Sequence to fold (389 residues):
Amino acid sequence: MDPKGYSSCVSPKVKSPIDSKRAAMRNIAIMALIVLATHYALSWFSGPNNHLYWFMALFLWRYTRFIVNFFAFWLYRPSVYKTGKTQPIYTNKDVTVVLPTIDPEGDYFWECVLSCAHNRPTEIIIVTAGDQLWEKTKNVVVRLREEFKDVRFRVLSTQVASKREQVAEAIPHVKTAITVLVDDHVFWGPRFLSELLCPFSENPNVGLVGTNKRVRRLEGLSLWARFWNMLGAIYLIRHNFEIRSSNTVDGGVFVVSARACALRTRIVQSPEFFSGYTNERFLFGALGPLNADDDNYCTRFVVNHGWDIKIQYTDDAAIETTIGVDHPIARKFLGQCRRWSRTTWRSNSASLFTERTVWASQPYCVYAVFLTSFTNFAAVVDPALVYLL
Fold:
């Protein structure tokens, strides 16, 4: 339960099912009118030239999104505290950090926990897997308790190495209003938490907050590994651009990365969230439960229950992370790319056809994120544009 708000996982401003259905039908009708008007305009302009008609239609379908996103990116405004007018409702002491790991003796883990502890949350819950890793993690935490006496540290363990199971193990132990999920290879700045909490204080309907992400340039890598590290950096930069832009237009995003994100605790502690998080299935329930794709699940759950999402894109709210460029590349970075591709198709299909809340709440994202993800294949679209031209 959130001690500073409602106990329900449903947003206090959630619409009734009838109102949501009306909003969805209105948005679909507007989309249909836009498509029809575009068809008549292109038909008039191209005349009998079918190649010109289809060139312009395909060009508009692909690049309208980029043009709108470009302007939305620069129109974006982060949440800020209005000095002298309002006091922050939530502070660092309203935060519990949940950190799953299977490498408690790694350099990245130690640096990650230090960066979290320097932000002074109330508690950091570290969840590992198996008795042996649990003992190793406890030994690491001993040094942290001595240095950060105002931060509580708790070490938990599951029987299997599964991020969802590890996070689920920690959630019932959270006593604060805000829960922050963080991966063990993510590093925060000294003012990260204060900045991350701004949207919750500014808007009581915000249930999930995401950040902008940067890939760390690792030293001592080969030319081959640096190439893949650069591709990972480009991927996250594009991710930043898209979520900042779409969040500006209609409040939507295609996913809030679970590398570091903040949620209201009453959302993640609700029985409905908990059961779905630990037992999410797909293909009409035939396959699962899923281990990957936890960030897509959290994003969809928040949207489906009427909460707003805010991307806090500032320098203080930026995280630094590493990507898998260890050998062999095919098992690390390329494996991540395959998982991202699979989860995008799974999650977007669920948003559009199974849950359908986005039709009412995020009409721009329906076009720019969900529908486009099924058609935006550069290897097909670009040659088609050249041929038609």
User: Anything to note?
Assistant: The mean pLDDT is 89.
